[in-house]
Write a structure and sequence with these properties.
Layout: H1 2-19, E1 25-31, E2 38-44, H2 50-63, H3 72-75, E3 81-84, H4 89-94, E4 98-103, E5 110-114, H5 143-153, E6 159-166, E7 172-179, H6 185-196, H7 206-213, E8 225-227, H8 230-239, E9 242-246, E10 252-255, H9 273-302, H10 310-320, H11 327-347, H12 350-370, H13 376-389, H14 395-433, E11 435-436, E12 439-440, H15 482-485
Antiparallel strand pairs: 1-2, 2-4, 3-5, 4-5, 6-7, 7-9, 8-10, 9-10, 11-12
Helix pairs in contact: 5-8, 9-13, 9-14, 11-12, 11-13, 11-14
């Protein structure tokens, strides 16, 4: 017992020596008016709300009688009060916004009470996944507030929240969320094991987690779906997926996911199923157009000009008559110009960025055509491809689409249309091999599962979606009885 007390005192003194170097470290002593017992508050002033200390805790400890720390729980008007006999808890509690209360002369016992300072922004509408119809709430950087938003959407006892601490220096809190009687336990175990296995000093955002727990770290395709919408999170949990929320990040991670889900906007579920399906098909067509239109232009003009109709060929020849560059250099010049404008617009303040994007695009595009560096036909195609790439609802997948155009351009220059086919084959093989938390990424196309087509490339009515996706292997595959659901017409039929 003596050795334990000596070790605790030694650990506490060493910690105090280090903390005294910080200006926000406070160690204050007071004396109880009745019992004359001396007690100390130890805390980090930047992490606690000193009003709680001054208005609630200190008056009670000065005026109420107490003899030892065990009596303090009944005196302090705070629910979160913890008594510990382990000095190793001091560091963790102090940096989590707790105040350490000790009685001078009482060794090997420490009292901690919560007094966290709430610093953060309020709940705002989504910025990345904005929708005209539907809720206007988005996650913020506070883990507790984000969990509150999820709990409000799913007020059930089966909603389980597990908290982990990751990062040797940052000690970032991470919450794993799932519905116990719906989720496949294997998916939960996989994500938990990968999070516990992270060996890194600082976790600043959920983007770190995406890269560290993905099945294939070298793939340009995101293997976890990130969202800032609580409604999308609650819907994914109800399907049987696992959600990860990182403290300090306004984006939640959802898995396992599929390739098609990245082209599905959550606003689709607020629209009639026919209109929603039409918009999804437009997005998928836009992605294919964005990737392929420039490589096809390069391939046809370099190798297969005989495929161009005569009337169109005359227009192309007229537009390229004064252009001294080969098609590949012309295309690369405009593609890189578009990417430069995008990066400049994203990094500059909002108002300046919008001006740069609009004015820069008009001025540079017009000047390059008049100078004879590019043809007006290619300028139109690349502008349409840039617009098409913006239809991707998920930002991470949009970046992947932007990247893919350049390998396709290279293959088109080397082997023409055959090169584009080869590039597509490589891409298809990569997607077939890719997995998300061990589940096939290209499902329902590969492996072919007709049931899951109900909510993939198109979205059928709610009455037709009586089963959860086969991909998830849920404990409760059936959502509703489809025969009962079809007795009454669905709201979107």
């Amino acid at each position: 017992m003596k050795k334990t007390i000596q070790k605790n005192n030694q650990d506490k003194l060493e910690l105090e020596k280090i903390l005294l170097k910080s200006n926000d470290f406070e160690n204050l002593s007071f004396t109880n008016e009745k019992t004359k017992i001396k007690f100390c508050f130890t805390y980090m002033s930047t992490l606690i709300d000193e009003k709680i200390l001054q208005d609630n805790v200190l008056p009670a400890l000065l005026k109420e009688e107490f003899q030892q720390l065990d009596d303090v729980k009944e005196i302090i008007p705070i629910s979160d009060v913890q008594i510990s006999d382990n000095a190793s808890d001091i560091e963790q509690k102090l940096f989590n916004g707790y105040v350490l209360l000790t009685i001078i002369g009482e060794h090997n016992k420490y009292c901690f009470f919560a007094a966290q300072k709430e610093v953060g922004r309020t709940i705002n509408p989504p910025e990345v996944e904005f929708s005209v119809i539907g809720p206007k709430e988005a996650f913020v950087e506070s883990l507790d507030m984000n969990l509150n938003l999820v709990r409000k959407k799913l007020p059930i006892k089966e909603l389980i929240i597990e908290e982990l601490s990751v990062g040797a220096l940052s000690k970032t809190k991470i919450a794993i969320i799932y519905i116990d009687n719906v989720v496949n336990t294997e998916n939960v175990n996989t994500i938990r094991q990968r999070l516990e296995g992270i060996q890194y000093d600082d976790i600043a955002d959920s983007s770190y987690i995406v890269q560290m727990v993905s099945d294939n770290h070298n793939s340009p395709f995101p293997q976890l779906l990130d969202t800032e919408r609580p409604d999308r999170v609650s819907s994914s949990l109800a399907e049987g997926k696992v959600v990860v929320i990182v403290d300090g990040s306004p984006h939640a991670l959802i898995g396992p996911t599929t390739f098609v889900e990245f082209f599905s906007s959550f606003e689709d579920y607020f629209l009639n199923w026919l209109i929603a399906s039409f918009f999804r098909l437009i997005r998928l067509f836009s992605v294919a157009f964005s990737i392929l239109v420039t490589p096809i232009y390069v391939a046809v003009l370099s190798y297969h000009y005989e495929l161009i109709p005569r009337d169109l060929l005359n227009a192309l020849v007229a537009s390229r008559r004064a252009v001294p560059l080969p098609p590949i250099l012309e295309a690369l010049f405009l593609e890189l110009t578009i990417e430069l404008l995008r990066e400049a617009g994203a990094r500059l303040p909002t108002k300046v960025g919008q001006t740069i994007g609009i004015v820069g695009g008009i001025v540079i595009g017009t000047a390059s055509v008049e100078a004879g560096l590019t043809s007006n036909v290619l300028l139109i195609l690349i502008a349409l491809a840039a617009l098409a790439s913006f239809t991707t609802p998920v930002y991470r997948m949009g970046n992947t689409i932007r990247f893919l155009r350049f390998p396709f351009l290279l293959f088109a220059e080397l082997w023409g249309l055959l090169g584009i086919v080869l590039a597509f084959c490589f891409l298809l093989v990569h997607l077939i091999r890719l997995t998300s938390l061990g589940r096939p990424y290209l499902e329902p196309v590969y492996p072919l599962r007709k049931v899951d087509f109900k909510d993939s490339f198109i979205r059928l009515s709610f009455s037709s979606q009586g089963h959860r996706p086969l991909l998830l292997r849920s404990k409760r595959p059936k959502r509703v009885d489809e025969s009962d659901a079809k007795k009454k017409k669905d709201i979107d039929e």
